[in-house]
Amino acid sequence: KAGVTQTPRYLIKTRGQQVTLSCSPISGHRSVSWYQQTPGQGLQFLFEYFSETQRNKGNFPGRFSGRQFSNSRSEMNVSTLELGDSALYLCASSSTRVLNTEAFFGQGTRLTVV
Amino acid sequence: DAKTTQPTSMDCAEGRAANLPCNHSTISGNEYVYWYRQIHSQGPQYIIHGLKNNETNEMASLIITEDRKSSTLILPHATLRDTAVYYCIVRGAGGTSYGKLTFGQGTILTVHP
User: Chain A interface residues facing chain B, Cβ-Cβ under 8 Å?
Assistant: First the structure.
């Protein structure tokens, strides 16, 4: 069974640009969550999607947005990039939203904003 | 979100058991304790989770105290490949915290030959 796949693995963007990251969950998984990891703030929750609906959102500005498609694949978008958006972006998939369900992470997308 | 407290770093000899403690004194009744580990800049790897009973799988054992205010992750025979940052997480169970994994700073476990 394939794991969580994130593309691209590495990305370099310029300040002011926008970026779209993709996450393909484990087959059959319907919940996708996104996290940002930086050296200063650690791992922080961005948002969760389940059945194409955003179920939960972290404390990030509106420049960060996401969506989920009918096949459960998810994308996150960051507009008007800032230097501080440089981070490892991780997504995690779960089969359900039940609390007793493991969440499995992808390898992440390393975004560098210059 | 219930907070967790872990030691910043720990050392362990290869082949010995590694016991990683975690304090979660504000945990509520329906919140699960999850453990993940992260090896340098890779995605976090799921290890184990539990509610109130002790749990064991092929990777580790999780011991949760009766009052649920603390837990211990046990790696029975640590290897060099177990060197990683270990995160103890209380998974949110209500309102806007539902389902969220709130990561702290974790414990850097170094396994020595």
Answer: 4, 31, 33, 35, 42-45, 48, 55-58, 88, 90, 92, 97, 99-100, 102-108, 110
Interval A19-49: pLDDT, tens: 999 999 999 999 999 999 999 899 999 999 9
Bridging pattern class, strands A19-24 and A74-78: antiparallel
Q: Are strands B84-91 and A10-13 parallel, antiparallel or unpaired?
A: unpaired
Q: Is the Cβ–Cβ distance between B22 and B87 less than 8 Å? A: no
Name which of A88, A60, A94, A59 is nearest A74 in CA terms.
Answer: A94
- The residue length of chain A stands at 114
Could you give the C-alpha distances from A89 to A8, A27, A32, A95, B3, in angstroms and in order? 11, 21, 13, 20, 23
